[in-house]
Specification:
Number of strands: 2
Helix content: 55-70%
Largest sheet: 2 strands, antiparallel
Order of helices and strands: HHHHHEEH
Number of helices: 6
Strand order of the largest sheet: 1-2
Distance between the termini: 11 Å
Radius of gyration: 16 Å
């Protein structure tokens, strides 16, 4: 499997898992979604918002790569979230619609990647304004790993209120 194929698989898995998470979370009331449960970003909706914040920040950075990927042109116009705990959407349905659009863009982004682009570097600044230059492929890997990390927290929070998300293993999405 090439680097490109691996990241296409990760984008497909990401979209599948987000649909599962949102389907499970939709069983809760707005107050249950907003209840502080002691997670890194407090509530389920806070953590779902953080995932969207993180995706936005990283895709804006990826949009600055010299390859100028067409799928990321939209992110030149998107405003950067002001903090990692920003609540972009308090309304669950609006958040879900934004997540669906984001996952579609991530799938487009992954389909445009080439091994050559993934082996190149990206210069960017972190949220504190500190400059870095790192391998793009490793950064894309971090991008997907970050989502998996926080979705794991969400599945735990949902499990604690009696909601089973179902199978979450990447293994079930890896083709034979």
């Amino acid at each position: 499997m090439t680097l490109k194929e691996n990241f296409e698989l990760m984008a497909e898995y990401n979209q599948w898992m987000n649909k599962s998470i949102y389907s499970a979370a939709s069983q809760l009331s707005a107050s249950d979604l907003a209840e502080d449960r002691g997670a890194f970003f407090g509530s389920i909706i806070g953590t779902l918002n953080h995932l969207l914040v993180g995706d936005t920040i990283w895709l804006k950075r990826f949009a600055e790569h010299p390859a100028k990927l067409k799928s990321l042109e939209h992110f030149h116009e998107v405003e950067s979230p002001t903090a990692l705990d920003s609540i972009l959407y308090e309304n669950f349905e609006e958040l879900r619609q934004s997540r669906l659009k984001m996952d579609h863009l991530i799938r487009e982004f992954s389909s445009e990647l080439t091994d050559a682009v993934l082996l190149s570097s990206l210069s960017y600044k972190n949220t504190k304004g500190e400059p870095f230059t790192k391998n793009l492929g490793a950064l894309v890997q971090h991008f997907f790993n970050h989502q998996t990390h926080h979705r794991g927290q969400i599945t735990t929070l949902l499990n604690q209120v009696g909601i089973d998300v179902g199978v979450t293993d990447l293994l079930v999405r890896i083709p034979s």
